[in-house]
Structures are given as structure tokens and as C-alpha cells.
Amino acid sequence: MKRRDFGQALLGLGAGMAISRPLVAEALPAHPLPLVMLDPGHGGHDPGAMAPDGTEEKTITLSAGFALHKALLATGRYRVAMTRTHDQFIALEQRVAIAVGAKADLFIALHCDHLPEADLRGASIFTLSSNASDGLAASIAADENQADNFAGPNMPGVTPQVANVLASLETRAMRISSANFAHDIRSSFKGVVPLLPDPLRSADFAVLRDPSVPSTLLEMGCLTNPLDEKLLRSPKHRKELADRLTAAIDLYFDNHAPSPKPHESRPHKASWRTS
Question: Which of 13, 16, 113, 254 has the greatest number of C-beta atoms within 10 Å?
């Protein structure tokens, strides 16, 4: 996968919306609403995947994150947080720590594929497994886990404690919840959002390793495919993605979510998390 150290303006919906601190938008119900943590992949000096014309994954994932953030808040059912809201590098371990520290009820990592064959296209949904479901899944996970190579010597990547968490998962229920959510995404996308053949896959993704938060990693499409790249650059398509994901999240919390996590205090109308 090619990665280059230069920036690119945010696309469409995400343009002009970047701010200096990750935002946590909250409602004020009698009982806290579930918290959905969105994780736009890559950022800063890590551009992620690169399309042949130079489109960078990091700009698409952030724009898609803003679209989904808006769609989820519009339902009035959720609090929503993002691990990053501007062009910032965040190590994989830090992304996990943000979700755990916020006591997130669901974690969604947003990414784009860069595949060896240009005719391959469509979204795919990943859950955690120490043994990859197939060779393609293993290759994608290895590529995404390379993000911390951009951290440099003074910025640690995933610690051995986090890397070994597979051996001590809190509950089998979390894996089941993650798998159920992946199925909900596939059901919501079917017939609307292009999908890779066999879109439900599993591999050892670093950002999915925490055992306390149901998590999925969504590859929204393939930047190496011209048709997918055109869609991913389109604000209209990113809104469709956000709407379909919102429907999947509604389905998940209606039918599959584990018991809500305890919250230490009643949330304020809005709060800010500093970087």
C-alpha cells in the first residue's frame, strides 16, 4: 500500500468542519443514552490508502465520520463521539483508550480499502479474530495495523498488554455482539451500498482488541477501484452510507446490544474532550 506524507483538503461534507478538539455531543435524558464512538482512520502524517489520482483515505474517513455523527445525533437516540475531528495522527492504542475511557457502548472504525486488483470493489465489515477468516482479511488487517509505524520513536504503538488481550477477553458476549452488529450492517447495506463478495470477515485488527466494547471495522469501499473512489468522494454517497449505518445501529441497539454500561454521572448538554 502506498502512503505519502502530504495533506489533502477535506472532501465535500467534511470540508470546513474540522475543529481543534475531539467533540463529544451529548443529549440530556433522565438516563444516559448509549455512546457510539466513531473512529475515522488515519490522519496527520499518516494519509492511509492512496487512490491513483492522489485521493487520501484520511480525508474520506473524516468526512464520513462527520456525516455519520450528524445522522446519529438527528435520531435523538445516542450520544456520539469521534476519536478525531481534524487532520490529526492518533496512535492505534490511543484510539482504543479513548473508547474505553469514555465507556463507549459501540465502537466503529471507518476505513477505505486499497486492494491489489482494481476490479475488486465494495464495502466489507470486519470483526476481531486472532485467526483471519481468509488471506485477504489478513492482508487488510496487517496493512491497517501498520498505522503506528507513523508514530515515530517517541510515540508508542499498541502495547503488549493490549496486544495480548485476545487471550483474556472479558466475555464471549462482546464477540457475539460485535458479530451481530456486523450482520446488521450487511443487512442494512444490501441492495443499497456495494459490498465485496463475502463482506463479513474477521482478522486481528489492533483497534478492535479491547474486550469491553463491541467493535467493528468498516472498509467503506476500495480506493483502487474507480467506481468506488467516485462514490467515496461523493457527499451524497457518504450521506447514504451514514443513513444505512444509522439504520444498522438502530437495529443493533433494538435487538442485540448488551446491557448498558453504568455511567458515573448524568451527562451535561455538551462536553468537550481535549486532545
Answer: 113
DSSP percent split of the chain into helix, strand, coil, nearest 5: 40, 20, 45
Instruction: Select from 139, 181, 137, 145 the least CA-distant residue to 163.
Output: 145
Reported as a pLDDT band with limits 50, 70 and 90, residue 67 is very high
The residue type found at 99 is A
Is residue 203 a contact partner of residue 137, using CB atoms and an 8 Å limit?
A: yes
Residue 112: domain span: 12-259
Structure-block grid coordinates of residue 232: 467515496
E strand or H helix that includes residue 272: strand 270-272
Question: Does 1 map to a domain?
Answer: no
Residue 167 covered by a domain: yes
Set of cell numbers at residue 260: 448498558
Number of domains in the chain: 1
Mean pLDDT across the stretch 135-139? 57
Q: Are 197 and 190 in contact (CB under 8 A)?
A: no
**48 contacts 61 by C-beta, under 8 angstroms:** yes
pTM of the model: 0.75
What is the per-residue pLDDT for 130?
58
Query: Is residue 110 within 8 Å of 58, Cβ to Cβ?
Result: no
Assigned domain for 71 exists: yes
Judged by phi (left if over 0) then psi (alpha if -120 to 50, else beta), residue 88 lies in: beta
Instruction: Kindly state whether residue 95 falls inside one of the protein's structural domains.
Output: yes
pLDDT (mean) for 61-87: 98
Model confidence at 117, in pLDDT bands (50, 70, 90)? confident
Q: What percent of the chain shows pLDDT beyond 90? A: 52
The answer on pLDDT for 137 being more than 70 is no
Q: Give 73's DSSP letter.
A: H
